[in-house]
Every structure is written in C-alpha cells, then in structure tokens.
Q: What sequence folds into this?
C-alpha cells in the first residue's frame, strides 16, 4: 500500500468559530472512504444523563471507540474527528487508538491571527454581543487548548481569517502529501498552499524511483495517491536546436527544434511564440480578461479541452481539474502563457486553478497593485510572487490628464530604497504603497497608481 492511502485519523483542533467544521466537511468531500464524527452529537444525546463536568470526556471517549471500531472494520480509511481537542488527555487518547489500530494520526489546527475577525464570528454565532463579554470569552478560549502536541504527530496549522479562500482541493492535496511522508511535520497550511506545496525535508518522493516510461508528474501522483490539480507546470525555456518528437500543446503542431517551453514535471511542451502570444499582451485597466464574463465573473472559454489523464479515462473535461483548465487556456490562446515583463526580472507564467472558480475568488495579494486577486493569475516560479491577470497585461505606457508626459509602467527599486519616488499618488494625491507598481515619469518624478485617473494608453 502506498503511504498516501494509509488509514488515518484526522483530528481537528481549535476554538469555536475558527473554521474547524468547515474545513472538516470540505476535506471529507474529497477523500474516499471518509467519515466525519462530531463529539457534539454524542454530547447532545447524553447531556441529561450524567454530571456536566464529565460530559466532554464521556463524549470524546464514545467517539474514540466509534472511530477505533470503524477503522478496524476497514469500512472507512479516514476518520475526521471534528473536536476542539482542548484537552491534552483527548489527544493522548487518539494517540493510543492510532497505535492500537496501526493508523496515522494527523492534526489540522485552526488558529485565527485576526482577532477582530474571530470576534465578529463569535458575535454572529450568538450569545452576548457586549464587547466586554466577547473579550472575556476570547481570553478564556486563548488559554484553553494551548499545549504542545509533540513532534511525533504531523500537523497542518491553518488561519481561516486571512484574505485567502481555502478549497477542498487545497486540503485534499495537503493531506495526501502529509500522509505520503514517513516523517512527521508541522506545516503552515496557508504558506504551503501559496508556495504550491514545496517538498519538505527528507522528502519521501526522493526515495521512490520512477517506473519505466513514467513522467515526473505521474510518479508524484502515484506517490501521493491522486492527481496534482493545484500544482502549476514548472516551465523553462529551451533554445536548443536539437530535434524533438514533442508536439506543441497550444497549436498541436510538431516542435521541430527550439525555442520552446517545456515542463519539468510532465511532457508538456509549447512553442515560444504560442506561449508568449506577442499580439495579445495588453488589457485596458478595469477590462475583464477575455476568458471572464464581465457581468457574472464566471469563466467563459469558447470551448473546453480535457487533460491527458481524464482523456485516457474517457471522462472528458473535468471542471475542477487544474490540467483540464490549463489545457483549455492553452488551446483557446486568449492570453499569453508566458509574459516577459519589464517590471520583473523573471518570466511570469499563467496559472488557472480550475474553471469552477469565479475570477473574483480571493486567493492571494497581487504583487503589483496590492488588491486581492482571483483564481487566475501570473506567477514567478523563482520568487513565488503572484500578479493579477489585469496588472500583468497592462499597457507599458499611458497618458494622464494631470501630466504632460507619457507615464511608464514601473516597478519599485528591488532594494526597497524608495527615496527617489514619492509615496503619494500625484494623480489623486492619496497615499500609495511604495512596494507596488506605478505609472511613472522619471523626468518629472510624477507617480500614479496603476488604476488612477487614466486617460488612454500609448503603447
């Protein structure tokens, strides 16, 4: 059995209103042979039958026995226990069950960093809305459950109060990867997802040899028990003139020789011209990308194209598959796959997480403008930054009614020394972040927000 398919107990941990139940149900929707057990269901049944001080312990013992029996029976491969795990004794009980049954124990801990957002959720759930009552409640919760879980159990630490939309695919991929490791790790879930799940120390995949004829992506999918629908292709440019038997995934014509882009994880190849699409590089500010319906913000590609895995399985196009979405993008050729941008030293590559998402889903902070971006964007493989599609495809110059010269799209100095660039927007006279891209006149030191008071593009 591959490690990624090991029987597993997933224990949720965290205070009320931190997102435990939401994440538990999202994960259960993706995992096979999986069930969620909530101690509150047992608690509500026995609350009138025993003293109050023993209710939580009795409820947890009951679900522990249920979990143990279900895992031994083989009916379920994954048991998700939706409990605050506020008592260390409860964790020790799960450790004992995991050892007795021979399963993996994994913790998903929800820790809100935004106390104001957590307070808002507590207030929405009900009870007193008086500030002093909520503050006392937060103080009590903050002191409850703060114990060391040890280094013998892997743990995902998630902050659901960040400007970040978790999907069930994010959780599914992260849990499958942790289940595939022999060692135990504590991982910041938000950062791991944003960086596309970089390998952890002593990565198990290094010890697993390829099967003959298997691509690197296929090997990783075999190790981790399923397709990687949220890991973008790692594209590099080849300028070699050595003949290749590959075909371009964009135009479907043979690639006779370089230059072309190829993926380090799979057999994807694409002509340099098909990837960069020099005639389709610009979007007007506030113009919806051509693959997005401006009214509904839904994706509206003219046609869909399935990935190789789903084509071989005769499943056709699958809307929540990253590769199906990416193939659809390549064949549609509506925006470039690779952008060589004057504001960044490395190429920016197009990423679309799935066609189920709306373009307005907040997944990241745009490096160019600072706004929350959608589920399609350009990213730098080396620097891990993300740029919204609109920002990446802005015209290189523009006119401004407050200035006589053309303004040039400019990135801030990489050293962070912004002494020669004003921190106010000269168009609207409002503060601007010196780390964000601007339209700028170097001769007059005139700086403007990317989307401020534009008249017309000039290039």
A:
């Amino acid at each position: 059995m591959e490690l990624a398919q090991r029987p597993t107990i997933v224990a949720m941990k965290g205070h009320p209103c931190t997102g435990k139940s939401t994440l538990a149900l999202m994960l259960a929707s993706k995992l096979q042979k999986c069930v969620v057990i909530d101690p509150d269901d047992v608690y509500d049944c026995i609350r009138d039958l025993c003293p109050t001080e023993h209710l939580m312990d009795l409820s947890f013992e009951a679900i522990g026995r249920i979990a143990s029996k279900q895992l031994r029976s083989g009916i379920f491969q994954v048991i998700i226990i939706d409990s605050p795990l506020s008592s260390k004794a409860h964790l020790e009980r799960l450790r004992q069950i995991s050892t007795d049954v021979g399963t993996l124990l994994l913790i998903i801990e929800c820790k809100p960093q935004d106390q104001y957002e957590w307070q808002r959720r507590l207030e929405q759930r009900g009870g007193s809305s008086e500030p002093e009552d909520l503050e006392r409640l937060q103080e009590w919760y903050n002191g409850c459950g703060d114990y060391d879980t040890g280094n013998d159990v892997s743990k995902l630490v998630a902050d659901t109060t960040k400007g970040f939309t978790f999907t069930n695919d994010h959780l599914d991929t992260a849990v499958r990867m942790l289940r595939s490791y022999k060692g135990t790790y504590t991982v910041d879930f938000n950062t791991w997802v944003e960086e596309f799940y970089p390998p952890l120390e002593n990565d198990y995949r290094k010890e697993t040899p390829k099967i003959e004829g298997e691509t690197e992506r296929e090997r990783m999918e075999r190790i981790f028990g399923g397709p990687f629908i949220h890991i973008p292709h790692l594209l590099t440019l080849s300028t070699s003139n050595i003949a290749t038997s590959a075909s371009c995934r964009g135009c479907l014509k043979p690639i006779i020789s370089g230059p072309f882009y190829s993926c380090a994880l799979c057999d994807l190849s694409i002509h340099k011209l098909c990837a960069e699409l020099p005639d389709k590089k610009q979007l007007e500010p506030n113009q919806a990308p051509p693959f997005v319906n401006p009214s509904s913000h839904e994706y509206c590609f003219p046609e869909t194209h399935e990935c190789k895995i789903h084509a071989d399985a005769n499943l056709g196009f699958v809307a929540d598959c990253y590769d199906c979405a990416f193939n659809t993008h390549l064949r549609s050729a509506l925006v470039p796959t690779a952008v060589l941008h004057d504001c960044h030293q490395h190429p920016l590559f197009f990423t679309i997480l799935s066609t189920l998402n709306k373009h307005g889903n907040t997944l990241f902070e745009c490096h160019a403008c600072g706004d929350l971006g959608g589920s399609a964007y350009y990213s730098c493989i080396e620097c891990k930054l993300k740029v919204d599609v609109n920002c990446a495809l802005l015209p290189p110059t523009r006119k401004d009614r407050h200035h006589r010269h053309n303004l040039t799209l400019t990135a801030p100095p990489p050293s962070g020394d912004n002494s020669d660039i004003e921190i106010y927007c000269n168009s609207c006279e409002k503060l601007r972040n010196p780390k964000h891209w601007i339209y700028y006149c170097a001769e007059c030191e005139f700086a403007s927000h990317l989307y401020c008071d534009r008249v017309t593009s000039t290039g």
In short: The longest strand covers residues 403-410. The chain has three domains: 3-208, 272-391, 395-457.
